[in-house]
């Protein structure tokens, strides 16, 4: 049984690798134009060559609330917001905002000693553990009111947690078994060759060895390599299974202890440090690159907006973000001049929604645009909420008028237009944007292609930044309206409903998956902004 699981593991990894290898021609497809290039992109290249050439722009501050950003990446250097009221490195809160040496933003998942949180639990783990602790101390046979509601909820989500935990444990156990074979074979080969790095040609020589152990080890590793599974894939999957079992779904893992705050209250909101890169900033670096990687240095990856400064706010660990950190990051962005905020994160449970709601109210009053990824669970956000969400618990009214919820679209304007992983919702998702095989940045001066609504959200963020940059007379409300009205309409297109659990998902009209029934389009948006500002309408 365990051997079958390992074969499935290798098969999945090989499928992913094959997809990446056969779609190299998709690099930067999201910048292309549907009417010219036969890709349902946003028309970035055409926009700059036809509509924005010769026009002046104003710098726009974009807050990236994420895992951190590589401030040394060649495609981002020089494009970071600088807090001019703070003197770097003097250990003093010069601007009296509560954050010492916050030059490029702030890290809300670290402490003043410089320690940083890398791994954390999923919210389902925290909620399960809190409710389990609560109901272990009281009589559950005579509950009423809120306690009864909480207990009914606990019984349902307990099933969800335990299913996830058992799956993670099985996957971890299977991987450890596989790891023993793989590591031993790898050790045998390196010892035989007397070198750390070897090639397929080296292995082909070793499979002729008279030493049975060396021959079998080489054949084993060579077989995996030919299927696309090497050291990089091994290390990536090792990180995944360890993260799920040892940290994300481990009720005994308590990383927040290094901060020592009360996560249910914002009375102690001045915590963290100024290390905006953090220990692992791949996700945030990628997101920032989609929005505004350097467009002029001839590198393969380039962003949408060409005149932005990034304010970096680190709140997302390897695990689920905390509501308190999200709330404080939004407040920091709003209070320090951010005009657009990208939030490529989310979760399916929530503990302290009221803290985020307070922050959204502030953002609404300051009229700051908030762009949020809809999620990657192939679920209907109208039925199952994913957090943060721009709705009150009771009246279901929006907390801010400046929120845009983004689903992910693919590179074909056919039945596969909505990405098969994307969440959707005719009430709670505003628009779709390219989110499959989106090419961007990776820490360490590298580049990568990735999928997700985490890719789609910064596409919309980039569009918003361009509009605010080249047409500063537009209000945030008008920018949101233009993004909605300029989206390429696919309302009547019959598409496959995102549903990974159903082998035969049904077809629906694309217009039922979001409010606009469209895919964001920069060329159309800029054209509309030109007409709007030309007519003198503010």
Radius of gyration: 24 Å
**CATH topology of the largest domain, anyone?**
Rossmann fold
Tell me the span between the first and last alpha carbons: 66 Å
Helix content: 25-40%
Shape: globular
User: What is the CATH level 1 assignment of the largest domain?
Assistant: Alpha Beta
Corresponding CATH superfamily of the largest domain: Peptidase S8/S53 domain
Record the strand order, biggest sheet. Answer: 2-3-1-4-5-6-7
Q: Please count the beta strands (DSSP E, at least 2 residues each).
A: 13
Major sheet description: 7 strands, parallel
- From the coordinates shown, what is the CATH architecture of the largest domain? 3-Layer(aba) Sandwich
The helix/strand order is: HHHEEHHHHHHEHEHEEEEEHHEEEEH
- Give start-end ranges of low-pLDDT stretches: 1-8, 10-22
Helix/sheet category: alpha/beta
Task: Say what oligomer this is.
Answer: single chain
The number of domains is: 2
The number of helical elements comes to 14
Percent strand equals 5-15%
Descriptive overview:
40% of the residues lie in helices and 11% in strands. By secondary structure, the protein is an alpha/beta fold. The chain folds into 2 domains: 361 residues, Peptidase S8/S53 domain (Rossmann fold, 3-Layer(aba) Sandwich); 125 residues, no CATH class. Helix 4 packs across helix 5. The longest helix has 49 residues. The relative contact order is 0.15.
Structural topology:
Elements: H1 2-22, H2 34-37, H3 44-51, E1 60-66, E2 105-107, H4 123-135, H5 145-193, H6 200-206, H7 212-226, H8 231-248, H9 282-292, E3 308-314, H10 323-335, E4 340-343, H11 353-366, E5 369-373, E6 403-409, E7 431-434, E8 438-442, E9 446-450, H12 453-470, H13 476-486, E10 488-489, E11 494-496, E12 507-509, E13 518-519, H14 522-534
Helix pairs in contact: 1-5, 3-14, 4-5, 5-7, 5-8, 6-7, 9-12, 10-11, 12-13, 13-14
